[in-house]
Specification:
- The complex is a heterodimer of chains A (280) and B (134).
- The two termini of chain A are 30 Å apart.
- The mean pLDDT of chain A is 85.
- Chain A has one domain.
- Chain A contains eleven helices and two strands.
- Chain A is mostly helical and 280 residues long.
- Chain A has a two-stranded antiparallel ribbon with strand order 1-2.
- The longest helix of chain A is centred in the first third of the chain and has 26 residues.
- In chain A, β1 and β2 form a beta hairpin.
- The N terminus of chain B is likely disordered.
- In chain B, 35% of the residues are buried.
- Helix content of chain B is 78%, strand content 0%.
- Chain B starts with a helix and ends with a helix.
- The chains are: A mainly alpha (280), B mainly alpha (134).
- At the A-B interface, α1, α3, α4, α9 and α10 of A face α1, α3 and α4 of B.
């Protein structure tokens, strides 16, 4: 395959990954790494390096739209970024010592888990407001968001240390696998800290970019960001996710969402099977 | 007392909102700039390497020169398309870092000591990942 055809196909594939990521709410990286490794036979370390770059692009690209809605909390985000960025550095170091086939297997497991979380989110999107803990006010994590009638709704968070710990895990997975680990972030904020759903999803979008930036520099220094992959993939994923966010989310997509959740599940299984057979 | 608190938190969140609006724009401009550089680098890259057959099947580290700021600047000066792409990558990584710097300044203006500390710590971790020598 010539370079021109290769880059063109990569662009289209990444566009699709970006669309799928926006549609399922999982982010582009989750579909991109399996696509690159299974579809284009790219070494998983290259796939992870270039995926991190795309994750930063989609997170930053969507930021302005999220801000306009007025739900995100800069304080919750910044506070938890302490955990995710530290985790990301740890993950980037772990990536050097872990066998590539094991990396593929871990990736597959996270993929399956993410699909299940996204599925549950779609069925049951809101959790009740938290009673709050004393740390919620002390750490300035309590806030307000615009309610349906325009009046601000006050919220508090609970179990700050539990959420913080899980965010460290989310950061480690991000640095290890080159994904945004949005599913783990939403779990930490939504289910454990009881941050209102809209606030947790929009805040998580900001955190994903900052978390990925923490480990992307290390990948770049190690020579894992290949320029020939970076340009078609980054431009493709970014365009795909912007198109997805603008058009698909508003459309009636419940059936598409079901189909895509199964696609993600299948990709996860394929990554695991592939990893196990090559390893043994 | 309750009234005073409510008023205080309202003013504080008005500032937070403005901070977030500016930060959203900052991110958008950063990613737009990086995309243009990436596109330019990509076009040059395809033109230079069009006859080659790419293979990323096994990991061969990128040339040492394209992993550091000095090397990338040097590569751009000598017209290496891969260096232009790496510049776009650097711009992209710098975008969220700039957001944290902006937050640090905003918390400074709000005189919020706790969050000055929090954002300084996040910035320190980011800079460690970004600038750390091999």
């Amino acid at each position: 395959m010539t370079l021109f055809a290769f880059s063109g196909l990569l662009f289209l594939g990444s566009l699709f990954a970006g669309l799928l990521g926006a549609l399922t709410g999982l982010g582009g990286g989750v579909v991109l790494v399996p696509l690159l490794t299974l579809g284009f036979h790219v070494d998983i370390r290259y796939a992870i390096g270039v995926s991190l770059i795309s994750v930063i692009a989609t997170s930053s690209g969507a930021a302005a739209a999220y801000v306009r809605e007025g739900f995100s909390s800069v304080r919750i985000g910044m506070f938890l970024e302490m955990a995710t960025t530290l985790g990301a550095i740890v993950g980037a170091y772990l990536a050097t010592v872990i066998h590539t086939q094991l990396l593929a297997i871990i990736f597959g497991l996270v993929l399956i888990y993410s699909a299940l979380v996204s599925w549950r989110q779609a069925q049951n999107p809101s959790s009740p407001l938290a009673s709050g803990s004393r740390w919620s006010d002390k750490l300035e994590l309590s806030g307000t968001y615009p309610g349906p009638d325009g009046k601000p709704i006050h919220y508090e968070v609970e179990n700050v240390s539990g959420g913080f710990g899980l965010m460290f895990v989310a950061g480690t997975l991000s640095g290890l696998l080159g994904i945004g680990s949005g599913a783990v972030k939403v779990l930490a904020m939504d289910r454990i800290m009881k941050v209102p759903f809209k606030v947790s999803t929009t805040t998580s979008n900001f955190m994903i970019g900052v978390t990925a930036a923490a480990s992307a520099g290390i990948y770049l220094h190690r020579g894992l960001v290949a320029p020939g992959l970076a340009f078609p993939v980054m431009l493709g994923v970014l365009s795909g996710s912007l198109i997805g966010a603008r058009y698909l989310v508003r459309a009636h997509v419940s059936l598409l969402r079901i189909v895509f959740t199964f696609v993600v599940l299948a990709l996860g299984l394929e990554m695991i099977i592939n990893g196990v057979t090559k390893w043994l | 007392m309750a009234l005073k608190n409510a008023a205080g938190s309202k003013a504080e969140h008005f500032d937070d909102r403005r901070m977030e609006t500016i930060m959203g724009r900052l991110l958008q401009v950063g990613v737009l700039l990086a995309s243009f550089v990436m596109l330019a680098g990509g076009i040059l890259y395809v033109r230079t390497h069009h006859g080659e057959t790419p293979s990323y099947r096994t990991f061969v580290s990128e040339p040492q020169t394209l992993r550091h700021f000095g090397g990338i600047a040097h590569g751009i000066a000598s017209g290496n398309p891969a260096a232009v792409i790496q510049l776009a990558v650097l711009l992209l990584i710098a975008t969220p870092v700039a957001r944290v710097v902006f937050a640090l300044i905003s918390f400074g203006i709000e005189r919020d000591k706790l969050y000055i500390f929090v954002s300084a710590l996040v910035l320190a971790v980011l800079l460690y990942g970004f600038l750390k020598p091999q």
